[in-house]
UniProtKB/TrEMBL annotation:
Taxonomic source organism: Variovorax defluvii
Top-level lineage group: Bacteria
SUPFAM superfamilies given in the database record: TM1631-like (SSF117396)
Coiled coil: none
Name by which UniProt lists this protein: DUF72 domain-containing protein
């Protein structure tokens, strides 16, 4: 058995430090307003829980116009710059990390969230259960598999690959450290188990049949999800376009899994990924819009510096948004589930991207085909 931290170096410590405490449900009554001089509530103040932003009638109406099979959301939720959009007032990141999820889930358009924390360290069933307790019954979680099983390399603090990861795609660890605790803790609120395969080393890309067989063994070892989580989907996300082959589609079909449409500069645009969705049709849509193509394959830090505090659409990408809306319309028009999570680095502010995508989709309602995701 490989230890928990075999493929988990101490990178991104800041992100992990935000999650030392578990989220808690919202209080039964609104907390008192802060004193005028206190713009931000420090994590140690023992102050009120996070209050959701006041309901926006236009967004409530927009949410009612969307197909019920669709769940839109963001990647994580602990961003102070979302004040006025998601929460009322200003809060420190640590407060939002602990208490913000309950407020986030009250936004009319936010019906899912990508729980990215799980990539950096496996979570326990009790940790997942605490997240589930903070959200309403109709909310669903997109959960990333730990790097322990989803990264072919053990990486240093700078993200560089140091050595081969012996636990990569290990079936036993994928069940014990990911699928089983997520299912036990989230129950019917589990939406997607995402195996985002980090960039693969060249020698492994040269042995695709062996790689796909390892992937097949892992996926087929996962426990059945639908009896406990009727809306649950297993999806595989890539960072190597070389894997977009009919052979991968065959593996996914055999395992009852789907392809995660990964909108990232390391991958081709939506149109060039659609053949994989067509090969798996009919089926659900899982999409994670991670990074604006303007910043290139390694532009996360650049985008973060440019876009913080993530309170506006700094680099709108209407072309990607419209293309994604068409795929969503075709998928949900055929009665299939659709999960879409958007990162702040996609356009500058994930909640505003969600609103803009919902508006684009609303314009397409009634025009979507019912037989194909590309209609």
């Amino acid at each position: 058995m490989v230890p928990h931290n075999a493929a988990h170096p101490p990178r991104l410590a800041m992100q992990e430090s935000l999650f030392d405490e578990l989220p808690q449900p919202a209080p039964p009554a609104p907390a008192p307003a802060p004193a005028p001089a206190a713009r931000k509530r420090p994590a140690s103040s023992g102050g009120p829980k996070v209050r959701p932003a006041p309901p926006d009638p236009a967004q409530q109406a927009l949410a009612r116009s969307l197909p019920p099979q669709l769940r839109l959301g963001t990647s994580s939720w602990f961003f102070p710059g979302w004040a006025g959009m998601v929460w009322e007032g200003d809060y420190e990141q640590s407060v939002l990390s602990k208490h913000g999820l309950a407020a986030y889930a009250q936004h009319p358009l936010l019906r899912t969230v990508s729980l990215d924390r799980s990539f950096y360290r496996p979570l326990t069933a009790s940790q997942y259960a605490a997240y589930a307790a903070a959200v309403p019954e109709d909310f669903r979680f997109i959960v990333k598999a730990p790097s322990l099983v989803a990264d072919a390399l053990v990486r240093g603090e700078d993200g560089r690959g140091m050595q081969a990861n012996p636990a990569f795609l290990d079936p036993t660890l994928a069940v014990q450290e990911f699928a089983a605790p997520a299912l036990a803790g989230l129950g019917p609120k589990l939406g997607v188990l995402v195996f985002q395969l980090s960039p693969l080393p060249g020698p492994m890309l040269g042995q695709l049949p062996e790689l796909l067989e390892r992937l097949r063994r892992m996926l087929t070892a996962l426990p059945p999800l639908r009896t406990q989580a009727p809306d649950a989907v297993v999806a595989v996300e890539l960072r190597n376009p070389e894997l977009l082959t009919p052979a991968l589609a065959q593996v996914l079909r055999e395992a009852g899994a789907t392809y995660c449409l990964g909108l990232h500069p390391k991958m081709p645009p939506i149109g060039e990924q659609l053949p994989m969705l067509r090969a798996l049709w009919p089926g659900p849509l899982v999409c994670r819009w991670n990074l604006n193509r303007l910043h290139g394959a390694y532009g996360y830090e650049e985008a973060k510096k440019l876009y913080e505090p993530f309170d506006k659409l700094a680099d709108p990408d209407p072309q990607t948004r419209e293309a994604l809306a068409r795929v969503i319309a075709g998928t949900t028009g055929a009665g299939q589930l659709a999960y879409v999570a958007i990162n702040n680095k996609a356009e500058g502010s994930a909640p505003l991207s969600v609103v803009a995508l919902a508006q684009a989709l609303a314009r397409l309602r009634g025009d979507a085909g019912t037989g194909h995701p590309a209609d």
